[in-house]
Amino acid sequence: MKLSQLKIDPEFQSKIPPLQFEEEQQLEQNIIAEGRLLNPIITWNGYILDGHTRYRILKKHGFIKFEVEEIQLANKYEALAWICKNQLGRRNLSPERKKFLLGKEYESTKLAVGGQPGNCNKVNRCDQNDHIDSEKRTCERIAVEHGVGSATVWL
């Protein structure tokens, strides 16, 4: 995929905490020294899910080699949930930012399968939700995945 084909969705980008100035400068220096990206830019339908900063650096330095990995997701809500889960797994986040991302992962996961984001009841009302563990509520499942209480996820 060409760099010019990559797209940015402001809603996707807003879920990713920006790097501090010094961190971005260090990343840029590391990429230039390497001459390539060590991690691919992850996309869904051409929209960047992971790699917004690397994308900006690539635009400034056209000689850098890069790869794009397109992942398959059912819809925009699954993409938002993927972004939140990915960020929660990689970043040193403030407690407030972590709670924000947990809430957004919960909301997006519910919307991806047709649920209501404020409803923390068991998801077993319709066939499209059969792939979700019907014994656990969505908020409880996400809480267990991230080692927090369910109230942290949906409050």
TrEMBL record:
Superkingdom field: Bacteria
InterPro entries xref list: ParB/Sulfiredoxin_sf
SUPFAM superfamilies hit by this protein: ParB/Sulfiredoxin
Protein's organism:
Faecalibacterium prausnitzii
Give the Gene3D superfamilies listed for this entry.
Answer: Conserved hypothetical protein from pyrococcus furiosus pfu- 392566-001, ParB domain (3.90.1530.10)
**Annotated protein name in UniProt:** ParB/Sulfiredoxin domain-containing protein
